[in-house]
Amino acid sequence: MIKINLLHRSVEDKDKKANLVRQVAIVLLSLFIFVIILASVHLYVAHSIGNLETDIAAKEARLVVLKKIIGEIDEIKAEKKILEKKLAAIKTLEEDRLYPVRLLDEINILVPAKDLWLTKVTESGQQLNIEGVGRNNLVVALFMKNLEMARYIQSVELIVTKQTEILGVKLQQFSLTCVKRRS
Fold first, then answer.
1. SS3 155
2. Which of 19, 67, 108, 157 has its CA 20 to 30 A from that of 5?
3. Contact 143, 111 (CB under 8 A)
4. Which among 124, 123, 106, 119 has a CA at the least distance from the CA of 173?
5. Which tens digits make up the pLDDT trace of 79-94?
6. CA–CA separation, 131 and 177 (whole Å)
7. What is the pTM of this model?
8. Any long-range contacts for 149-156 (C-beta under 8 Å, 24+ apart)?
9. How many of the other CB atoms lie within 10 Å of CB of 103?
10. ∠ at Cα 155 (154, 159), nearest 5°?
11. Distance from the Cα of residue 73 to its chain's centroid
């Protein structure tokens, strides 16, 4: 007679089914944990993106405010430059106002008394033309030397000197050209 052991196979099938159920449970549990991890990473990234967008919006608003302030600063700098130019012009005008007086005063001091007389002083740009009459060539030379050492005169050049007679007295008529200097 043939004996069939049906019991042994059913235990084996039960073990296979139990292993299969266990494997499916493990796969499902792993899949569930993976989905939870994926969801938490997604939430973290979404939260980080939200925070970064908020920071970007705040910094863009700050940038707009700073650009406005920079514009105001540039306007103030432009106004400052204009004012500095105006102040420089005022300073130049103030110096120019007194310059001719000081120049003529210095020339007057340098004229040898009773030996030399100025007849004409003209100004043309940086050039000063002086005409006059002196007792002799030595007095004219002394006057030229004094002019060269003057604070407001840079150089002196004799244009012409000639002898002339005024009321019976022989005198030296001269013409000088000077280059002015700003002190």
1. strand
2. 19
3. yes
4. 119
5. 999 999 999 999 888 8
6. 9
7. 0.51
8. 150/106, 150/107, 150/110, 151/106, 151/181, 151/183, 152/99, 152/102, 152/103, 152/106, 152/180, 152/181, 152/183, 153/106, 153/128, 153/178, 153/179, 153/180, 153/181, 154/178, 154/179, 154/180, 154/181, 155/179
9. 21
10. 145
11. 13
Question: CB neighbours (10 Å) of residue 116?
Answer: 20
Percent pLDDT > 70 in the chain is 93
Question: Which helix or strand (DSSP H or E) is residue 38 part of?
Answer: helix 6-110
pLDDT over 60 (residue 75): yes
Question: DSSP code of 183?
Answer: -
Type of residue at 96: D
| Residue keyed to tokens 């000081």 | 102
Bridge partner residues of 177 (DSSP): 129, 157
Helix axes 6-110, 137-148, angle to 10 degrees: 160
Mean pLDDT of the chain: 88
Tokens representing 51? 């925070």
